[in-house]
Design brief:
Strand order of the largest sheet: 3-2-1-4-5-6-10
Order of helices and strands: EHEEHEHEHEEHEEHEHEHHHHH
Shape: globular
Radius of gyration: 20 Å
Largest sheet: 7 strands, parallel
CATH topology of the largest domain: Rossmann fold
Structural class: alpha/beta
Helix content: 40-55%
CATH architecture of the largest domain: 3-Layer(aba) Sandwich
Number of domains: 2
Amino acid sequence: MKQVLVTGGSGFFGGVLKRRLLAEGFAVVNIDLVQDPDHHANLTSIRGDIRDKPLLQRIFAENQFLSAFHCAAMLAHDTISDDELWTSNVDGTRNIAEACRAAGVSKMVNISSNCLWASNLGHEVAEDEIPAPVELYGRSKLAAEEALAEFPDLQIVTIRCPTIIDGGRLGLLAILFEFIQDGKRVWVVGDGGNRYQFIYAQDLAAACILTLGYEGSDLFHIGSDHVTSLRQVYQAVIDVAATKARVAQMPKAPTLLAMKLAHKLGVSPLGPYHYRMIAEDFIFDTRRIRERLGWAPTLTNNEMMVEAFRYYAASRKEIHARKDVSAHSKPAAMGVIRLLKWIS
């Protein structure tokens, strides 16, 4: 049986990929700081830190991996220090590559982010465009990519992703879904006409598995097709929810100023990355991954958001009771947004 390592396999996307690999007949070893909720005859779950080099040495010595899928990352809206985020995302990534090299594991897949850019570039962003992150998480993901450049002897495929959506994706989305299910106004910044690309988690998992048959290192941008406006995405969910929720507008300049002030005061879960998602266009050019991996997306933004909402609506009480899970597997704290809900 072919065996693979998944880092962060207790989290949202790592869990999707882990279960997909198990379903396709792979044996999976998961390492994560968070307890793994899944059990399977071919799954070995290890609660541990990718910054722990002796632990990684032992894991690689005791297994024969075909590839390492590196999904683990600490997020800027977690309650962690800047140093924890940086060392986990950068040093931890380097540790996985070093362990691969030492154990003779030639393949590694690194999940990166569109947070490498801070604003709309006015066109679909290709792989050869120079990144320009402005916040810590984006800088850490770029530094992780640069660390992997130190391993030219490995076949490393980096996949840069926009926001990953599927049933089970919560975090800030849970706030949106709560507004919709409770029949509140759902706010867009400006006219809500900005187009922001997502990626369906199952489509991203399919791309990861396709890399197993790919020779050499590469960098791919991934994302959905037929990207509609954020207003249209929200309306698609409202239509399915069939509540009194409706899309309402906020003026762009003062709203962004208020968001930045609330973030600086530590009373809002929305950070610099989210300002862009809420108010600007951002779409990846996906031609390279289509041509070289033979990959194509299956769901649009609207379809995957509806799927994510249905999961939330069916399990809301249990979701809000969750404690020891990853940031994307539980609702984000509303902070000052609860006041906005009250007046909506």
